[in-house]
Amino acid sequence: MEGTVNLQLSAKNVGIFEAFYNSVKPIQLVSCTLDVASPGKIPAGKTEIPFEFPLTPRPNRTLYETYHGVFVNIQYLLRCEMKRNFLAKDLLKVAEFIVEYKASSYEKAVPHPVNFSITPESLHNVKDKGRIPRFLVTGHLDSTMCCVTKPFTGELIVEHCEVPIKSVELQLVRVETCGCAEGYARDATEIQNIQIGEGNVPCGMAIPIYMIFPRLFTCPTLSTSNFKVEFEVNIVVIFQDDHLITENFPVVLTRY
């Protein structure tokens, strides 16, 4: 049985920090080997061999939840190997098992409701705000601190807009940071994108926001000395001419 954190640098960061090459080595969280059957013959038919591992971390390590990301991967594997004589190949099978936090040991989600109002003036990273059509989008998120097993909810209202709207979308983003004291590489990548409004949605109508967090691609927000896994939600409004506006909301995920 082994559990590891595999860190990877994105192409844009490779070569920037020499120190990264030490800090992105796989981090072994748990490792255990045992013999489950002594040498001999296995009889015909079905043979079940029970086994048991203590799921305890290595010294000075912590077990984290299973997580499949782009630059950070936390994975727990069982490897079963059957040694055979020199005339037959050894048999090997690998299976992943999922690790989740216990209810009692970690913080629970406390509701943090957020009201938002998106206007041309509220946008960041825009050079010429005069070219942006006049619009007002309001709404609320029920909480930016969320339990990963419950849906992300809220509502959005397009109050008015000068130009036709093509689509309203909800984007879930993972922000993965790898590094050490010498420097960090921070990369944001899309996990999923959900269309919550298609076409030129009517003004003044409440559009529900409802999103399920995908199991393997999200985990409770995590921050360690070598890596961080954080999450953000973007509300994206795409106009008919394919110009788009985005409002960003950092979210904190918890197990319970």
Could you explain how this protein is built, in words?
It contains 1 helix and 15 strands; from the N terminus they run βαββββββββββββββ. By secondary structure, the protein is an all-beta fold. It has a domain at 114-254: Sandwich (Immunoglobulin-like), CATH 2.60.40. Strands 8, 10, 11, 13, 14 and 15 form a 6-stranded mixed sheet that branches. Strands 1, 2, 3, 4 and 5 form a 5-stranded antiparallel sheet that branches. Strands 6-7-9-12 form a 4-stranded antiparallel sheet, with no helix packed on it. The mean pLDDT is 89. This is Down syndrome critical region protein 3-like protein.
Secondary structure: elements and pairs:
Blueprint: E1 2-7, H1 20-23, E2 27-31, E3 67-68, E4 72-82, E5 91-96, E6 114-118, E7 135-141, E8 145-147, E9 152-161, E10 165-180, E11 183-198, E12 206-211, E13 222-223, E14 227-239, E15 244-254
Parallel strand pairs: 8-15
Antiparallel strand pairs: 1-2, 1-4, 3-4, 4-5, 6-7, 7-9, 9-12, 10-11, 10-14, 13-14, 14-15
